[in-house]
């Protein structure tokens, strides 16, 4: 059964003193770094999805367990139908929906407060492939959104959601709070913030 495999020789680790870190093999990210470095690419990791019939607090718990702040909503056939964010669930949307529909919070479903496909603006994969982190950050700042969806039609000519870029991923990579960056008036100020680790 195992004839096609070979036993690998294990090495001694006693003389190894150092751990390799990403900063040793690639330079630290800046606003001029390629935008693809902050995109979660669904050809490499699967999107985190939620059925549109889930109760909103269950969806929020799912987000927390998956360490994301946005879920891709799918219908009964598994087709993409929209997005829902932690901000949607924690904000006034749920209460407003419950009052409008005459139901309790426990009855509010993802479908009631999600942003449907028609209300989502996206970047194409080609745009992201030719952009910098600064370009994407400026775009997100202008839209007021914490996430931007990336679409691609290079697979059999069918438009698909290829990935997502989140403000929190940009913030983590640059080691600067997104809110601090938003307060900056010019890109020169933002670059100064990034260079000084979050302080002007």
Automatic annotation (TrEMBL):
Sequence ranges assigned to domain CBS in this UniProt record: 39-108, 114-180
The keyword Calcium is annotated on this UniProt entry: no
Keywords, ordered alphabetically: CBS domain
Protein name (record): CBS domain-containing protein
Source organism of this protein record: Marinobacterium nitratireducens
Domain of life per record: Bacteria
PROSITE patterns noted in UniProt: CBS
UniProt cross-references to InterPro entries, sorted A to Z: CBS_dom, CBS_dom_sf, Diverse_CBS-Domain
Pfam families reported for this sequence: CBS
């Amino acid at each position: 059964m195992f004839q096609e495999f070979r036993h690998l020789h294990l090495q001694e680790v006693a003389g190894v003193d150092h751990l390799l870190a990403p900063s040793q093999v690639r330079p630290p990210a800046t606003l001029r770094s390629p935008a693809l470095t902050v995109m979660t690419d669904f050809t490499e990791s699967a999107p985190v999805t939620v059925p549109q019939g889930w109760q909103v607090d269950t969806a929020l718990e799912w987000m927390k367990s998956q360490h994301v702040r946005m879920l891709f909503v799918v219908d009964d056939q598994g087709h993409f139908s929209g997005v829902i964010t932690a901000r949607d669930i924690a904000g006034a949307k749920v209460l407003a929906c419950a009052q409008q529909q005459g139901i309790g919070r426990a009855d509010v479903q993802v479908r009631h407060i999600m942003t449907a496909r028609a209300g989502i603006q996206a970047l194409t994969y080609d745009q992201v492939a030719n952009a910098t982190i600064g370009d994407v950050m400026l775009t997100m700042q202008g839209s007021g959104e914490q996430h931007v969806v990336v679409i691609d039609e290079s697979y059999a000519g069918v438009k698909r959601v290829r990935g997502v870029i989140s403000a929190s991923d940009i913030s983590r990579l640059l080691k600067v709070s997104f809110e601090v960056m938003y307060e900056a008036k010019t890109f020169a100020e933002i670059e100064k913030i990034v260079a000084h680790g979050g302080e002007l």
